[in-house]
Specification:
By secondary structure, this protein is mostly beta strands. The chain has a single domain, classed as Jelly Rolls (Sandwich), CATH 2.60.120.10. The protein has a six-stranded antiparallel beta sheet with strand order 1-2-10-7-12-5, with no helix packed on it. Strands 9-8-11-6-13 form a five-stranded antiparallel beta sheet, with no helix packed on it. A hairpin with a 4-residue loop joins β1 and β2. The protein is globular, with a radius of gyration of 14 Å.
């Protein structure tokens, strides 16, 4: 697991079983990913980036944790917390966790399908746009 921004962003690349019992596996039929175990979540949605350069996010939440799992494709993550910024490309299999207060957004490197889920306040209410982060 990699940690950025003083633990505000954590990235785990799923392969075989992780310490938390999460995994990604696949065969000729396709892929399977187990993204949460024993933890409740309040929302779940699928996020599609159809074309390279598509942008999503660039916002901050104050009252909930958010996770985003890249099922296929690759995304450029830009995140900021306490004046520090990261800009990193992540590929399929990455499970990203954001704590409250971390501004984050994504730019597609390729066509990408991701799943976002989290717990805490309703993200439809607890979202402040931060378009300036994405340039």
């Amino acid at each position: 697991m990699r940690s950025y921004l003083d633990g505000g962003v954590k990235v785990e690349v799923l392969g075989g079983d992780s310490a938390a019992g999460l995994f990604r596996a696949g065969d000729a039929r396709g892929g399977v990913a187990w993204l949460t175990r024993g933890e409740p979540f309040h929302y779940l949605h699928v996020v599609e980036f159809r074309n390279p350069g598509d942008r999503r996010g660039f916002h901050v939440h104050q009252g909930h944790d958010e996770r985003l799992y890249i099922f296929s494709g690759s995304l450029r993550l830009i995140a900021e917390h306490n004046g520090e910024t990261i800009d990193v490309v992540l590929d399929a299999g990455a499970l990203i966790t954001f704590v409250p207060g971390v501004t984050h957004g994504f730019i597609a490197e390729s066509a990408t399908i991701a799943v976002s889920f989290g717990s805490g306040t309703d993200p439809m209410v607890d979202t402040t746009p931060r378009p300036e982060l994405g340039g």
